[in-house]
Amino acid sequence: MDVTQADIATLRTEIGSGRLSVPQVVEAHLDRIAALDAGIGAYVHVDADGARQAALARPAGPLAGIPFGVKDVLDTADMPTEQGSTLYSDYQPPFDAGSVARLRHAGGIVLGKTATAEFAGTAPAATCHPKDPSRTPGGSSSGSAAAVAAGMATFALGTQTGGSVMRPAAFCGVAGFKPTFGSWPISGMLPAAHGFDTVGVIARSANDLAEVHAAMMRLPVPSAPETVPSVGLCRTHLWDTVSEEAARVVEAAAQAFSRAGARVADVPLPQEFAALTAHRRLVNAFERAANMEGWAGAIGSARTESQEVFSRGLTVDGASYIAAAAALDRARADLDALFGDHAILLTAVTPGVAPVGLGSTGDPRLQELWSTLRCPAVTVTFGTGTGGLPLGVQLVARPWSDLQLLDAARWLETLRS
Amino acid sequence: MDVTQADIATLRTEIGSGRLSVPQVVEAHLDRIAALDAGIGAYVHVDADGARQAALARPAGPLAGIPFGVKDVLDTADMPTEQGSTLYSDYQPPFDAGSVARLRHAGGIVLGKTATAEFAGTAPAATCHPKDPSRTPGGSSSGSAAAVAAGMATFALGTQTGGSVMRPAAFCGVAGFKPTFGSWPISGMLPAAHGFDTVGVIARSANDLAEVHAAMMRLPVPSAPETVPSVGLCRTHLWDTVSEEAARVVEAAAQAFSRAGARVADVPLPQEFAALTAHRRLVNAFERAANMEGWAGAIGSARTESQEVFSRGLTVDGASYIAAAAALDRARADLDALFGDHAILLTAVTPGVAPVGLGSTGDPRLQELWSTLRCPAVTVTFGTGTGGLPLGVQLVARPWSDLQLLDAARWLETLRS
Asked: Do B292 and A325 count as a contact with CB atoms less than 8 A apart?
């Protein structure tokens, strides 16, 4: 068994049986980082000593001995938290973020901090796609996705305001989960646009996503799902942005659900939801600029993209922001009707495979639609496209139906050919 | 004119006309702090030099030269931010909170950091009521309310998760505003229970609240309201917790609105809203403990009340939290029907005047009901009770109707006898 490719349940079994020690698990990952990360750039800080000490301290709990990475917009008491920015060079927070601490207390071992776009925004991290260095790994949780895809962590925490967990997970061919807005602790997370910001996780499988969610929410370790959900295929007003090969993978997932006995039906997105992309843009710009206001005196040292975000946000007047934010709330109130009798919506996650070029982390629109609505979302790989690169699909559920969502994703993974 | 009792518009006029200089305004407040604060304990840190320098730097903007206090759970780049706790002794954040920076950029001058209950929770600050040192000023924004009431700041930022702006403002006989959840920037604010946390403001009048809101939201400085709102008198399921004298003040406000030409009608709170208090308790406990998880190794040094909050939160299982959080979302979706054709609800803000004793900051239930629903809320003083102490009322509006709410509060203030 390759320790750096194993999932959480396998590692737990191997460690529990004594066939594998926690220090062995940690060393295997540190070795892999030493061998590969110079060419990928997933980590901005590796705490080998800290990880080794934690491994020797007999970790206990549902994630005992599982090594993970932490996006560098989440505070760590024992490592700097630089937000992908020279504005926070060497900044050392006093305490762990709530999300980090909870996983540590569940036995998880932090290997290091993963690269992020500056301020979890649009200025890309210096991370490349593990399968093709000419391509973006996606972002803003670039390092988290690349680390998991390359076997340099069993899972990694990320954050999503637009599509910052879903997109890199899909591009890198791994699984990603953005829980219901507000369900995971936010202490020690850099606020970007606070109406959308959510801590999330990238892992090797939907089952691992469910394991991390259970640890974070103090729920029992999940058992395998027993029922097939009712699935609505929702192409959205953005369907014409989806490439033929990505669309084919979404259709294949719908057919797989159907063959497995799920009721699958088209769910058209009501006309008014098409306005969400524009409303979201206004709210995002206004909130990001407001939260950045404390950096105003230093913003000239930030990257061009971040300076532009700040400037653009300052052009949004308060009245427009209020109108857009209220419109988003109305759309959220209509979500229940949108889902109807479907527990899950199936939709596209990206327009296609990871694009060539490291100057952009890709198109966020297909992912951000559901962040805007505060729904939980999962992406799992369901095929390949150009150059043999992975293609994912996205599953979405009503807010607070995270467990049903994760069950559906686990189902779907069992249906892959 | 007493500079330390003047409102924002008056100070703006006096400064604009040259009858008063910004350094004079700042010195008057520093003198007042030096004279009074040893007996009140509103400030935990006063930056006299910083305030003087800012006064000499020719501040510009809608709040030019207006001195304000900042609750010590909001980051300041030039002063420590101690969260009311020895866990954060001397902690110096790298940047201003977004809310603080925005007001500074509007010309406001920070005098210092105001005392807070530990972590904006229940362990009281060492602040007493400006009118009676045997009584609590309310909390958790204790210092902010006491500073404004005692003329030691023109206004002060606070935060509210339950009733932490409304309650101290009402007890201290000043005005308080908690905007719509999510509308003011949250960067640099200590998360408590993130589903409810909102930055707010305490000031001398509803007009001043509107001025600060305009500066924060980059809206025009508000003109006087022209129309009388339609008011629903909402006694809530907590009406039997309200003292006779506090109830009388609420009824008097209803009558005043009515005499001024407002349509006033009773609005009963639907039966299911009575469950909100219990749901809110679960959600609050779970989220606070999750956000506190990073402090776990140091929590033994925190105050007893905070340790209990952490322990209690850890007893809430994830499934109960999810069920309660989903129930709160359903109640929020029913808000529009609750308001009906009323723009504003009028309700009680506290059970009575500030209670004797500094061991508790008072009963949060009447205030937290509306924080839970994410509504904007205002309190203004509308009478006196036991010992001549002030009694307030609370006005509430639909989310994102903050401007209408502030207009109604300004109306009500003009109707005081």
From this structure: no
